Amino acid sequence: MRDQETDDFEVDRLSGASGMNSNLPPYSMDDQLLPMERRSPCGCWIWACLVAAINVLVFLLNFLLLAAIFAVVLLPTIVVVYFGFQCHSRVLHSAVSYCKTVLDDNSSSALIILGFVIMSPLMVIAMAIYCSLVRRLRLFLCFQPWARAVYKGVKWRWLEDGGPRGCLGECNSNIKAWV
To answer: What's the whole-model pTM score?
Structure first.
């Protein structure tokens, strides 16, 4: 009885694995009637370079947007910590006039502590602003699938959303997300 259960399990596992086709791309192809044709090796390399370049540009755009938002939102923390470290006698002890007249070691320590304390809430605010802006601009829809390089006939996601500006189009009001 035990051997029969093991044989049935192996047959079910093999029959389930044989139904999968490894040649198809990993996304849904409900709207396509015929199986897609593979590109030639040369065409595959050219399209792979094009898709990689587009995806790298979209990644850099996202990274620059992230860096700009974090730089603007964290600017108060950067300034406060900078002045705290600049005027403390055991760190840099600058000879600037405001370090001698306004800030002593105790006030410099207070600035350093204040800067690190306000950093956490400002990072949360910066990340919320970035996520909201990326969702509104739909920047992640600009990434192209790698299957475009391998198969002929894969639609550009831009065309489904209204042209090259489709991935940067207006926000869909039906999509709700908590940030």
So the answer is: 0.61
